[in-house]
Amino acid sequence: MAVNAGLAQTLQQIGLKEKEAGVYLALLSLESITAYQVAQHCEVKKPTVYVILEELRQKGLVLKVPHAKKALYAARDIGEFLEEQKRKLRAVEAIMPQLQALGGASGPNVYFFTGLRGCAEALEFKFDAMRGKTFHSFYGSLMGGNPEIMKLYTAWDKRAIASDMSFELIMPEDAKNKYYKDIADLAVAEPEAIRIQYLKNYLYPPNISVEIAEDFVRIDDEKNLQVTIIDDKSTADAFRSIFQIVWEKGV
Predict the structure, then answer these.
(1) pTM
(2) CA-CA distances (angstroms) from residue 47 to 31, 59, 60, 71, 97?
(3) What 3-state DSSP class applies to 228?
(4) Nearest Cα to 226, choosing from 142, 123, 112, 146?
(5) How do the domains of the chain map onto residue ranges?
(6) Between vectors from CA 64 to CA 59 and to CA 69, what angle results, nearest 5°?
(7) The Transcription regulator TrmB N-terminal domain covers which part of the protein (predicted)?
(8) How many whole angstroms separate alpha carbon 215 and alpha carbon 230?
(9) DSSP code per residue over 116-162
(10) What is the Rg, in whole angstroms, of the alpha carbon atoms belonging to the chain?
(11) Could you tell me if residue 174 is left (phi over 0), alpha (psi between -120 and 50 degrees) or otherwise beta?
């Protein structure tokens, strides 16, 4: 029984259910038998055995043997079955370049979040994937922004830093002692985690922030409590290139 149990578990690795594996092993040991005999051997109800036998037949593991009185069933050689699966796998591998090209042709995934709860959900997008990595962000002045969203972002900033994320931020100079005082203070306390470049002439929508992650971009509208996420590495790379130009030139 222990041997059969081990064999059954191994057969489950090729997609068989527990009862299917048991029926297949019964067929191997008893050769051509009726559904009734399978039911007795496996201690499975006869109606259930018929269903299992048909599923195994469709998977190519059981043969239905013609017989004058009652239908007989026999297990197909496992070697033949595996060789057939290998041929199918090789056929799919041969068209993988075309399949990958089709996948690459699709556009980026875009997600929309609204309300304070939606903004909180947007902040959790790929949070764990950004551990040990850097956000490059443009921050607006937040003039007229929702105070509740600032509390949410401040708490998230601290958690992100504690989770080994870092930030390079571009923001207006006149906001560092107002709306962004908390993150400005964090930059002083955590200089390795947060680097900020303050710009005097900052012609940028006051309530829009753009956060560029490793493979997505998050666009926050703090006044209207709306967030758009573009989940696409090429888009993130393009935004990051723009960020680097502004960061290096300071304009």
Answers:
(1) 0.55
(2) 20, 19, 20, 14, 45
(3) strand
(4) 112
(5) 2-78, 109-249
(6) 155
(7) 11-76
(8) 9
(9) HHHHHHHHTTTTGGGTT-EEEEE----TT--HHHHHHHHHHHHHHHH
(10) 31
(11) alpha
pLDDT of 3 reads 43
SS3 call for 60:
coil
CATH topology of domain 2-78: Arc Repressor Mutant, subunit A (1.10.10)
The pair of structure tokens assigned to 145 is 């922004």
Higher confidence at residue 203 or residue 210? 210
The CATH class given to the 109-249 domain equals alpha beta
Cβ 24 vs Cβ 15: under 8 Å? no
- At 130, list the tokens: 């950004």
CA distance 44 to 50: 10
Q: Average model confidence (pLDDT) for the chain?
A: 82
- Within this chain, domains 2-78 and 109-249 share the same CATH topology: no
Instruction: Look up tokens 């573009």; give the residue.
Output: 230
Please spell the DSSP secondary structure of 159-218, one letter per residue: HHHHTT-EEEEEEEGGGTTTTTHHHHHHHHH-TTTEEEEEESS--S-TTEEEEE-SS-EE
